[in-house]
Request: fold
Amino acid sequence: MGLIDIKVDDLVNFGRDIIDRIWPDKTAQAAERAQADAHVLDLAQARFTQTLQASVTSDVAQIEVNKIEAASPRFWDSGWRPAIGWVGATALFVYYVPYCIAATVMWVYHCYVTHSLVHRPDLDISDLIALVVILLGGHTARTIEKLKGVA
Reply:
């Protein structure tokens, strides 16, 4: 945030107040408000179009880089996606499986000792799930590249 924190709604309301003071006639006010609202919408549409074009340009450039990397005969360039997949899968297995087993054994023991059903411990796997989703998305992209003959 900068020194001046102005919201778009505040600017629009300020513009409407000025229109009300300059043109006391309600018909003229309505016409000026419609023109001002149209101008604000045009500015918003232009900004959205610029942002979308920049995003598309960036995506196309990244696709070209991906094609070049995937076509490389060097493993270091073309093999990073499978490598990160194996590292991610190994980390997932090494971290989650023992953690889940230990938490379950401790929970069952606690329930047995207290003769009551207590809440199962939270396995806190939200970061892990996010990692898996990202890796699966990357793996899917790599599979599609292989099926199309790009990689």
Remarks:
- The mean pLDDT is 78.
